[in-house]
Amino acid sequence: MTSVTASPSSDKTTRYLYYGILFVLFAHFIALIFSQYYMKVNADAAESGWYSKIAFLSDIVLTPISLFLYFKYHRCFPFVINTCFLLMPLLVFIASFNDLGLFAKTPSVFYSPKGLGTWLNFGTLYFAAEEEYTEKILKWFKYFCYVLIVFNLMQLGLAGTISNREVALNAIRDTTVVLLWVYPFFFLNDDDKTNFAKLTKYGMMLLIAFFAFAIASRSYLLTMAILIFIKLRRDLKEGKNNFILFCMIIMGLMAGYYIVVNLDKFGTLKDISTVFTGRMGEDSRSSQLHEFMDQFNWDKLFTGVGPSATWNWSGDLKAPYQWLDNQFILIIWWFGLQTCIPYIGHLVYSLFKKNRLNLIRITNAKITLFFWTLACAGFGIYITISSSLYYYFMTLMIGMVTLNIRRVVVYHKLQEEQPVPDAEPLPQV
């Protein structure tokens, strides 16, 4: 049951935790920018520069923070969430026991999608108990989105002719994936009280949809269209600024018609359109999954094959392949069915947990997690359960939704509309 408490004064420990998490986020943001920039030069070496070492160092810093967060705030979260968090790294460790030498030989694997460190750092979700500081972190995520949009526009401009999909992917793939998973949460929020704020939000969302179009991702383009529809329906239902929204829709349709009719005049856009339409009939995901299941060893359903396992995919002839566009099956393959269940438990519990205070930000977080669940099941690409900027954001979303004890000081709307009951102290260890 959700309870509401008054906000206690923040202590130094909480500030240090906040600065530690902020260091991690900035390290990954810097690594993201530089790896994306150098990807067009050498895609294979783009993730092995000095910036990746900073990101790796930040992941090491986050591990003790994550564990400390669990011990400090676990009483603020449901038993299901706490149990799932404890089970995941334990089961990963057991399944990886025979391959522990891999982590010693290649330390970076420890914080990869198949590494134990990634699962330990899942404890970041417990920082959501400090809602004042969570608000600050969310603001930084929003600032990251602003920078990434400008960066993507510059990258596309520098790329010139988009002769094939690989050119667009090397220019904006990883930065676009972060935008696709982070910005919709802010887009759906109701903090846009002026016409200019609304127009800015829709404009940014359309740009992100354009980036999804540029990397020829049909699933992400559909997701963006659904999210825009949700926001538009909310705004129209409020009855405010309907004229502005109507004018914006008309202008958007007219601009779209003009671009389609005069597509030859827009060289880069024409190239992107050609690449996108060329993928409309492709179904590489189903064929990939079919090939994988033909090689799946059902005797390893519960024991897993370990993080060093590979398989042969016809879509990648360079070397034995080790990934799959379905995160749930990938976890089962590596670590066994029992390891996937706690992670799915986090997502399912988050989706079905009641939003008793009817907070719109919790609803928006649940919408974000719904699409994330679909993506993990194969609806999205270029995402993994990993030490990535978008994944830390998703972890924070789980914490926000499942938090049992909320403080009204953050939710100003709640302060105005809801009476505050007798304060309960925040449980401390």
Sum up the structure in keywords.
mainly alpha, 17 helices, 66% helix
Query: What share of the residues lie within helices?
Result: 55-70%
What is the general shape?
Answer: globular
Written as H for each helix and E for each strand, in order along the chain, the element string is: EHHHHHHHHHHHHHHHHEH
Radius of gyration: 22 Å
Main β sheet profile: 2 strands, parallel
Number of helices: 17
Query: Low-confidence parts, pLDDT < 50 over ≥5 residues?
Result: 408-424
In order across it, which strands form the biggest sheet?
1-2
- For the termini, the CA-CA separation is 21 Å
Average pLDDT confidence is 83
DSSP summary, beta strand count = 2
Structure classification: mainly alpha
User: How large a portion of the residues is in β-strands, by DSSP E?
Assistant: under 5%
Give me the oligomer status: single chain
Short description:
The chain is 66% helix and 1% strand. The chain is mainly α.
What's the SSE blueprint?
Elements: E1 3-5, H1 12-39, H2 50-73, H3 79-96, H4 100-105, H5 116-120, H6 131-159, H7 165-188, H8 195-214, H9 218-238, H10 242-261, H11 267-278, H12 284-295, H13 327-335, H14 337-352, H15 360-379, H16 389-402, E2 405-407, H17 412-417
Parallel strand pairs: 1-2
Helix pairs in contact: 1-2, 1-6, 1-7, 3-14, 6-7, 7-8, 7-9, 7-15, 7-16, 8-9, 13-14, 14-15, 15-16
Q: What can you see in these coordinates?
A:
The protein is an all-alpha fold. The chain contains 17 helices and two strands. The protein has helices at 12-39, 50-73, 79-96, 100-105, 116-120, 131-159, 165-188, 195-214, 218-238, 242-261, 267-278, 284-295, 327-335, 337-352, 360-379, 389-402, 412-417, and strands spanning 3-5, 405-407. It has a two-stranded parallel sheet. α6 packs antiparallel against α7 (165-188). It is globular and about 65 Å long. The two termini are 21 Å apart. Residues 408-424 have low confidence and may be disordered.
